[in-house]
Amino acid sequence: MLKDLETYLKKLAPEGIALAFSGGTDSALLLAVLSRICQQNPFPLKALTMRSALQNSDEADEAVRLAKDFNVCHKVFSFNPFSLPEVRHNRTDRCYHCKKAIFTQFAAYARQNNLKFLLDGTNADDLKVYRPGRKALQELGVVSPLAELGINKRQIRELSAELGLKTAFKPAAPCLATRFEYNTLLDDASLQRAAEGEKIIKNAFPALGDIRLRVHGNLARLEVPKDSLSAVAADSAAVVEKLKRLGFDFVTLDLEGFRSGSFDIFRKQV
């Protein structure tokens, strides 16, 4: 599988590659393989990261460190997501408009620097769930090697571990807007509160892996792995106190446990 990925990327390399690099497990695997190919036979390569209020600031900082570790030229862009009404009001098609704005910047940069191929870390599992941003990527001609080769998240983690990448078992860090119900007005303060609240839970229970703090007004709904529900409930007093200091009046533990994209089941067509 790793050989197939290398072969695929080597075919694109001579004409130049720009990689949308979040620093997450998927894009880190691509950058690691691209870096190795580039060391063997140099070609134009650039990692592109977008910094915005929709991501925890730690994620962009980590992307900068990882690109440096991989010895890949890196450029960080900035973007105000609230300039888009669809994002500001958290519409069900928010992801399409956001991705279109971000990748339009990346595509323009790639063209200006003679990098023919713009890549992203979409994987095979992403094709099976609600991902309106995929339409924007397709419209802009973004190449998704992992998805095209049928490589899923589990396989990405296995390949990353095989390469000794520290991102191999890094929990997913999706857009902060996913912590809110659709058709909810978003702003810097609400996103920051959600990010800070989630960080409190992660610091209190560092071994949990994937967790989410979902926001319903002044109610915080915690999603943790189902087999950890009793442990979190038994040791929740300090977490509840800290979350209430952030302005949450109620803190609840979701008995269904962690579900990626749990708000998607409530989305309404627009």
Summarize the structure.
The protein is α/β, with parallel strands linked by helices and 270 residues long. Helices cover 43% and strands 12% of the residues.
Secondary-structure element series: HEHEHEHHEHHHHEEHHE
CATH class of the largest domain, named Alpha Beta
Spatial separation of the terminal alpha carbons: 40 Å
CATH fold-type name of the largest domain: Rossmann fold
Report the uncertain regions.
Answer: none
Helix content percent band: 40-55%
Strand content: 5-15%
In this structure, how is the largest beta sheet organized? 4 strands, parallel
Q: What does the average pLDDT come to?
A: 93
Number of strands: 7
- CATH architecture label of the largest domain: 3-Layer(aba) Sandwich
- Number of discrete domains: 2
Q: What overall geometry do the principal axes of the alpha carbons give? A: globular
Q: CATH superfamily of the largest domain, called what?
A: HUPs
> What's the alpha carbon Rg, rounded to whole Å?
19 Å
* Strand arrangement in the largest pleated sheet: 3-2-1-4
Oligomeric state of shown chains = single chain
Structural class: alpha/beta
The total count of helices amounts to 11
Structure description:
With 270 residues, this protein is of the alpha/beta class. The chain has two domains: 2-162, Rossmann fold (3-Layer(aba) Sandwich), CATH 3.40.50; 176-266, Alpha-Beta Plaits. 43% of the residues lie in helices and 12% in strands. The protein has eleven helices and seven strands. The strands form two sheets. The protein has a four-stranded parallel sheet, sandwiched between helices. It has a three-stranded mixed sheet with strand order 5-6-7, covered by helices on one side. Strand 2 (45-51), helix 3 (57-69) and strand 3 (74-78) form a beta-alpha-beta unit. Helix 2 (25-40) crosses helix 8 and helix 5 packs parallel to helix 6 (133-139). The chain starts with a helix and ends in a 17-residue tail after the last strand.
